[in-house]
From TrEMBL:
Protein name: NAD-dependent succinate-semialdehyde dehydrogenase
Domain of life: Bacteria
SUPFAM superfamilies: ALDH-like
Organism ancestry: Bacteria, Pseudomonadati, Pseudomonadota, Alphaproteobacteria, Rhodobacterales
Gene3D superfamilies, alphabetized: Aldehyde Dehydrogenase, Chain A, domain 1, Aldehyde Dehydrogenase, Chain A, domain 2
Length: 459
């Protein structure tokens, strides 16, 4: 490890900024300062916390253009996607401010000889380790819920978007959040382990790969600290016999390419029954091959660069390995000869177990199309995964699709005849190797609280 972080524009390979790592002593002092800020924040009323969270949402809107530009420069997001991300984060603030006081309110229950009170108490400093693909949203998702609950927040952001983490801190403080209550730690992995070990840190949350989740989850468990893990997935979108094929093709292209294909809940595997397979592959490939790579700041660009060249190269290797094991690329599939971390929209067919395209998460604009015999086989293939974050069903019979989604699809989220990233009033999270715990929808506010029983008797 060097003693500095350099952020690099993945479209131009330009060095953007250089940041010094914290020393161990500085990092420890930052944790202590966050805890001190928490000691006062926890005593504020729910309404007072909500007022500041509402102000954070307003400040995000006011800072949208500058923040979006920074994110696109740091990680290559198309500028329109970056602006939409800020809008979503503002909506999360608004939802949390409007619903937090009710979600966290004391509840009274009858008990023998008196009254029982169930109260939700903040537990302390919550440490978040976050990735680069949504530099604002990934942080806001856990931070705003936990600030509403009364906790303090530590952030170790991905190195490639260090500037975005610091920008968000400044947004929060401009909105009135007490200094140090949201603290950005510029640290390495070894220092991160020490943060988890720190007695002042009471909970740990990570968004990342299942490998990272195992390491962080194990480290938190060693310290008997609760963790929430939102990990990767290879979400299956199934096209059943009675699907609207035009809708399915259009939605699946958008679901695969959104955010340059670098989203945990991107549509990644496309499981299509024999009835529609040939027509789906033809139309899907035609639309994917027409997507042009370009400058993420050009509103007409269909696909920007991936966030880093090493991640692009890792994706290319997964594609090559899949082809060596029997898959075929109908479009894309090769690293382009151009500057930047670009990879073309790619469609793979003849995808089968044992290939990365079937078994693993391809975190980039690569689609795996798999043929199923019938509807039942399509659902079997969809669930044939170690992951379970999201998925989708295309089916004109909404009642049947709803039953399949609720009773048969082994994932945390299912879209029917559409594609969704995240909605503030709906829970977000997965099962199996996609992690555990829930965010959004009021659920995230209660992941890191002490649900306390108070018994009032003797009256």
């Amino acid at each position: 490890m060097g003693d500095q972080i350099k952020t690099i524009n993945p479209a131009t390979e330009e060095v953007l900024e250089t940041y010094d790592y914290m020393t161990d002593a500085t990092a420890k002092a930052a944790v202590e300062a966050c805890h001190e800020a928490f000691l006062s924040w926890r005593l504020k009323s729910h309404d007072d916390r909500a007022e500041i969270i509402r102000a954070i949402g307003k400040e995000l809107k006011a800072s949208k253009d500058a923040f979006a530009e920074l994110m696109s420069r740091e990680v290559g997001k198309r500028i329109g996607d970056s602006k939409q991300e800020i809008d979503l984060c503002a909506q999360i603030c608004e939802f949390t401010a409007a619903n937090g006081p009710k979600e966290l309110a004391d509840e009274e229950r009858e008990i023998p000889g008196g009254t029982g009170v169930v109260t939700q108490s903040p537990i302390g400093v919550i440490y978040g380790i976050q990735p680069w693909n949504f530099p604002c949203y990934q942080v806001v998702r856990y931070a705003i819920a936990n600030l509403m609950a009364g906790n303090g927040i530590l952030l170790k952001h991905a190195e490639s978007c260090t500037g975005s983490g610091l920008f968000l801190r400044d947004v929060m403080e401009r909105a009135g959040l007490p200094k140090n209550l949201f603290t950005v730690l510029i640290i390495d992995h070894d220092q991160s382990d020490k943060v988890i070990e720190n007695d002042l840190v009471r909970g740990v949350t990570l968004t990342g790969s299942d490998g990272a989740g195992r390491a962080v989850g194990q480290k938190a468990a060693e310290q008997l600290k609760k963790s929430v893990l939102e990990l990767g997935s290879n979400d299956a979108y199934i096209v059943l016999d009675d699907a609207d094929l035009d809708l399915a093709v259009k939605t699946c292209v958008m679901g695969r390419i959104y955010n340059n294909g670098q989203t945990c809940v991107n549509a990644k595997r496309f499981v299509v029954t024999e009835k529609h397979y040939d027509a789906f592959v033809e139309r899907f490939t035609q639309q994917m091959s027409a997507i042009e790579m370009g400058d993420p700041f050009d509103e007409k660009t269909g696909l920007g660069p991936m966030s880093r060249t090493e991640l692009r190269d890792e994706l290319a290797k997964q594609v090559d390995d899949s082809i060596e094991k029997g898959a075929r690329a109908l479009c894309g599939g090769k690293v382009p000869d151009r500057m930047g971390a670009y990879y073309p929209a790619t469609v793979l067919v003849d995808v089968a177990p044992g290939q990365p395209a079937y078994d693993d998460e391809l975190f980039g604009p690569v689609a795996s199309v798999i043929k199923a015999k019938d509807d039942e086989d399509a659902m079997r293939i969809a669930n044939d995964s170690r992951y379970g974050l999201g998925g989708g069903i295309f089916c004109k019979d909404e009642g049947r699709a709803r039953e399949l989604a609720s009773k048969h699809f082994d994932t945390g989220m299912v879209s029917i005849n559409g594609y969704n990233i995240a909605i503030p009033n709906m829970p977000f999270g997965g099962v199996k190797n996609s992690g555990y715990g829930r965010e959004h929808g009021g659920f995230g506010m209660k992941e890191f609280v002490n649900t306390k029983s108070v018994y009032i008797t003797g009256q």
